[in-house]
Amino acid sequence: MYVCICHAVTDREIRACIDDGGGSMRDLRKQLGVGTQCGKCACHVRAILKEEKSAALLAHGSLSA
Ligand code: FES
User: What span, in angstroms and rounded, lies between the C-alpha atoms of 19 and 14?
Assistant: First the structure.
């Protein structure tokens, strides 16, 4: 699904970028351009970033103790 209409960026591309080490909004802005034009996608991008970080924490068992 398209998250950033201005730059035609999908949630998959955002998740792939996070997996490749894009761990902050600054990284995602720089690499994909999200949030750099109208800014309407920023909230959704932040939500995806938070979701991915939580999933990574759970996958590594850090929250299971
Ligand atoms: S929708 Fe992402 S900058 Fe406009």
Answer: 9
